[in-house]
Design brief:
Layout (H helix, E strand, L loop, with lengths): L5 E2 L1 H14 L7 H13 L4 E4 L9 E9 L1 H4 L7 H14 L3 E6 L9 H9 L3 E2 L1 E2 L12 H4 L7 E4 L5 E4 L4 H14 L3 E5 L3 E2 H7 L1 E2 L1 H15 L3 H8 L3 E16 L2 E10 L7 E7 L1 E7 L2 E5 L3 E6 L5 E2 L9 E7 L8 H7 L14
Parallel strand pairs: 2-5, 3-4
Antiparallel strand pairs: 1-2, 3-9, 3-10, 6-11, 7-8, 7-9, 12-13, 12-19, 13-14, 14-15, 15-16, 17-18, 17-19
Length: about 350
Amino acid sequence: MKKITLVDKGKLEAIAIGGAVLGSGGGGDPYVGRLMTNQCLKNAEPVKVIEVDELDDDSLILPIAMMGAPTVMMEKFPSGNEFTQLVSMMERLMQKKVSAILCIEAGGLNSTIPFVAAAKLGLPIVDGDAMGRAFPELQMVSFTLGGITATPMAMIDDKGNGATFDTISNQWTEKLARALTIQMGGSAMVSLYPVTAAECKKYLIKNSLSLIHYIGCIVKEHSFNAYLVLAKELNGKHLFQARVRDVERTAGEGFTRGVVKLEGIGDFVGRNAKLDFQNEFLIAKEGEKVLATTPDLICLFDANTGEPVTTEAMKYGLAVNILGLPCDPIWRSKEAIDLVGPKYFKYNIDYKPL
């Protein structure tokens, strides 16, 4: 895997595709982020991608993300001015200038959104993230495992309303920010987990931007066979091939939740499967047999085009290949499984690594 150092519009397309793969169905549609970043890069230099080790230990690194239900994000297109306001708010709170931008999750829309902030502000972006994929809740990051607090946190909506938080735990940050996100119309721009480079060096999942670029290049090159190449390259497993028979989807409490019922095709004819999701795909089952669970990634690909499929794009009749990918090793500890495993989401299922 070749590391990226500069991101222009060409590389951004591959990053958006790779982000959709590691989004595990969630994180919002990266196509929206790609449109925003393309617009920004028309009048800006390519975004510089750096290693966290290039920064002084006391440098301030700021994650930028979009929070809320992916289906709502598609209807509330950000103007782009939110990022400048967010960074200004955080610099006032931290009493320090920002040295670099960070992706909080290397999945979905939030794999591309931080490039907009970086392009607008002329700042570099760190090659890494705090999830190695997308998770639905704010506390589900490697920084939480390292004891780093999510606050001070700032958030702003599409109308320009802003708010800041100082909470007693990352779980409380999730609860309060989620409630305000609902009042803001279901989605908002946020900045949280402000970290020094020294902290980032300890708990960052490194090189994830280079990884999603690599994944995106594979999808572009191999089209409908990409899932097989990715299974080989990333130690994944082809779990199922199916056609969507039914989709139940609801948006509420700041999330998009639902169930996808699948009817096997190809080598899987006569078999049925089911996917449960909360923004991201959480559980894949064939009958009572568990195929994969969070924190491992459940990734869907259009069987005809090879493009990754998000939860909001699921529809009746769509033919898909389901790929299971192992999560970053940081999510395999007991503490991590308690934070992001199936039992956290109220499923009576023990996590078994792919």
